[in-house]
Structures are given as structure tokens and as C-alpha cells.
Amino acid sequence: MKAMRKRHSLLDAIIDAVFSRPDTVAYPFGELQLPEGYRGAIVINPENCTGCGLCVRDCPTGALKLEKKSRDEFKLIHYPARCAYCSQCESSCVRGAIGHSNALVGATDRPRELIVVLKDKKEGED
Amino acid sequence: MDKISIPIGPHHPLLKEPLSMRIDIAGERVLGGTLRMGYVHRGIEKMTAQRTYVQDVHLIERICGICSHVHTTTFCLGVEKLLGIDVPPRAQYIRALMCELERVHSHLLWLGILSKHVGLETVFMHTWHDRELALDIMEGISGGRVSHAANQIGGVRFDLSPEQEVMVKENIGKLKAQVSGVLGVIENEPALRARTQGVAPVSADLIRDYCVVGPVARASGVDVDLRRDDPWPPYDQLDVNVITRPEGDAWARTLIRALETRESLRLCEVLLRQMPEGPVTVRAPRKVPEGEVVTRSEAPRGEVLYYLRSDGSDKPARLKVRTPTLAVLSLLPEQLSKIHVADIPVVLAGIDLCIACADR
Question: Based on the structure, what is the number of domains in chain B?
């Protein structure tokens, strides 16, 4: 065995691999554990958003759009298919209104899911 | 014997990225070769002039999928130099930690590719499994497995929590054990030595003539490493051991990268131990004063150079990137002479090509 080990330096690793469990996750059948800080779906805290447009200005892929009629009437739209999930919007927002959740964003065949209205503020609403 | 020209690429199972080669052979002997590049040219340098500095950080991260962090770090260092702002020490340490982890994952990825080309699929499986540990660390602290989005002008985007530091230390401990196993294989495995020793040796003079940098240069005995020669903080406070080998063949290039992985893991531990407390970012103005600057960093494959010219607006007037792969590629026709046909994959894998970096 000793002579074999000397000749085959991989022998130990191969024996270990035979008795160890697989490292891969059987996703989507098994549970996928993403780290806490994973940059997943874009979420918004509507109370903090004032429609200032700082996130829209800095977004490198143009994934955010602000339709602003007045200070009290605006709509913030996110296009997930354009988004690079780089967290620039989170860094640019001075009120901590926009950020990531750690939910995985998968591919979709439903076109409606490719446009997400993050905030739709009508006049007179808070 | 008659000369035959074999076209390889731009799309070929041997290549991970598009590159066109024409290799001249006579029987089993390779006589030489020519290269053609530019299949993944995306015009990134030009595109940076159309976007703001803030947006450019994310664009530059897409130059390369492996050494993405070092590109943004070098760019941010240049912009910060023009702005005249000092990055907090903790941010500098986190930047360097990410750079070293990137080197670990890049070298392990490459070791796997070389092992696959020489027929050691077991080592390929093991190194790629170990590389996942390095990627897990980076995903855990930055939120992204490959595009870390760690840098912003003025610092880094995230801080390391005490729990994350424990996780990083644990995984680095595991990686150290795994890398010493890989080193044992490279030094002792007869199959690997037979396929790589004495294959396509490159002399130190040739390395200097072609301005080759990084592990390929160090494997030929050329002692260059920007972490020691032109360090940005915190590398100026670290004692970086530059590893060189005199052989210059494919085996030396393999061993160098395995030893550098071990050295990078040691540096990660030092960085974590010495990491100062404090903020991780400072506020940076959007408009950059007029001027030009050159910044250099040691990427996993060698020196990355950024030239940046600002006209006083919030968009760069000109950005020029020099990546290490182009110099190594220019040496490829030289390396492809005086070898056997069976050695072509070993030579190609041995120089760790990154075509996306070179074409931009």
C-alpha cells in the first residue's frame, strides 16, 4: 500500500471521494441556501422612496425607470431582465429605500414578470 | 516531410474562449504557428467614455470573468488618485483580501484546466471543488460569486462582519490543506511530470524581449511582482514572497501557480489578522478634475495597467487598459515551435490565456 501511495499520489484523494457525500445541491428539487448578503431580487421600502431618481441616474444598465409627473405623482419601474444586480442603486440611494433581498431571480417565460413596478405613488397618497 | 497547416479555433473544444490559430506541423513535430485575435472585442474602452465614472466601475468589472475585482480596483485607484481622496485603511485591506482570494480561485481554476489537458481528470475535479470554497468566501462577503461589485470610487461597498471573518478563516484553513495536497500531486505524480517537464521551455531573455509578466515570467526566473515592486496600500505593509523557478518549462509554470496559491492564502490570513477597524468608504465627488494617471496592479496573470485621462467632467476622456495576456500571446508562436503535436494543449493551457481580457 505504501509503495502504491508513492506511485499514485492521488490514491488518498480518490479513496476519500468514494466515501464522501456529493457537494452539489439538487436544486430545484433540494433546498438552495444562499448567503445572507446575496444580491438577489430588487426590493423597495416604499415609505422611504421620494422619487428623487438618484438610483435611475447611476444604474449602469438602465434597468430602472422613473415616470415622474410631479413631486407627488411618480412611478418607479424595474426591469429585471436588464438588471446586472450590481447594487449600485443601493449605494446611490441616500434614504436606504432601494436594495436587494437574497431571493434568487430565475429565468421566466411570463413577460409580465419582466416589468416590476417598485412604487406607484398617486397624488394625495403617502 | 510535407508541411501541413491545421486551423484551430475560433471555436474549438480545446479553447474556452475564441482565438484563431494556424499551426504548421510536419509529422509529429510542430514547426510554428500564427494567431488571430479580436473575436470577443466589445469596445469596452470606448464605452467607458460614454458613461459616468460610477457606471464605469460595473462595466470594467465585465472585462474579465475571473480577475474582475483587480480590474475595478486598478480603475478605482486611478480615479481616487485624480480626485486626491484617501481610501480608509479597512477598505484597502478588504480590496487586497478580495484580490488575493481572486488569485486563489484563478490559479485553482487554471490548475484544473491544465490537469484536464494532461489527462489527470481527478485533479481537475479536486481543484475545481476547492475553487468553489474560494468562490463561497467571495459570495459570502460580497454577495456575488463572480461579479463581486466590491469596489466603488472611495472604498468598498460592504464591510466584513465578525461572523464573516470566522467563515473566511475556516474556509482558508480548508483551502490550505487542499492546496498542499495538489502541490504533492504536482511534485510527485509521474503522469503530470512526464507531460509537462521540459515542454516548451522559455528563456528569461525571451521573457524580457516580449515583456511577458506574471507567473509565466516568474516560472522562467524573471523576478517581477507588482505587489512588491510597485505596491499600493496595504501591499506596502505586507511581506510578499515572490516565487520564481529557473526551469521555464510547463512544469515550472504549474508549480509556480500552486506555490502562489499557497502564498496568497497566507497573505489572506495576514490581511485578516492585521485588518484595521473603521469606515469602509468615503464620499467621492462625481466630477473628476482634469489630469491623467497610470495605475498598475498584479492580477492573477500578471501586470494590469490602466491609463486614465480626465477632462474635468463626470465621464472619462480616455481609458486604456493593458492586460497581461496580450504579451503572453505574442510569445505563443515562439512556444509553439520545437514541440510535439501532443504538447499543443499543454502549451496553450500552460500560459493561462484570458482572451476576454486581451480583446476587451
Answer: 1
- Dihedral angle computed from the Cα positions of residues B114, B115, B117 and B120, in that order, rounded to the nearest 10 degrees: 170
Residue B145's SS3 state is coil
Backbone CA torsion sign across B12, B17, B18, B24: negative
Q: Does A54 touch chain B (CB under 8 A)?
A: no
Mean pLDDT of chain B: 87
Nearest by CB to residue B189, choosing from A9, A35, A60, is: A9
Which pLDDT tens digit goes with each residue over B95-120? 999 999 999 999 999 888 888 888 88
Q: Does residue A58 sit at the B interface (CB-CB below 8 Å)?
A: yes
Residues of chain B with pLDDT under 70: 1
Domain ranges of chain A: 35-121
Report yes or no on B28 lying in a domain: no
Does A9 reach chain B within 8 Å, measured CB to CB? yes
DSSP A22: P
User: Taking 80 as the threshold, does the pLDDT of residue A93 lie above it?
Assistant: yes
Question: Is B314 touching A (CB cutoff 8 A)?
Answer: no
Name the residue of chain B whose CA is nearest to A36's CA: B140
Give the CATH class of A35-121: alpha beta
Residue B142 domain flag: yes
Question: Are B153 and B54 spatial neighbours (Cβ–Cβ below 8 Å)?
Answer: yes
Question: Does ipTM top 0.90?
Answer: no
Tens-place pLDDT, residues B79-96: 999 998 989 999 999 999
Residue contact A39–B144, C-beta within 8 A: yes
* Residue from A9, A54, A64, A105 whose CB has the most chain B CBs within 10 Å, to mutate: A9
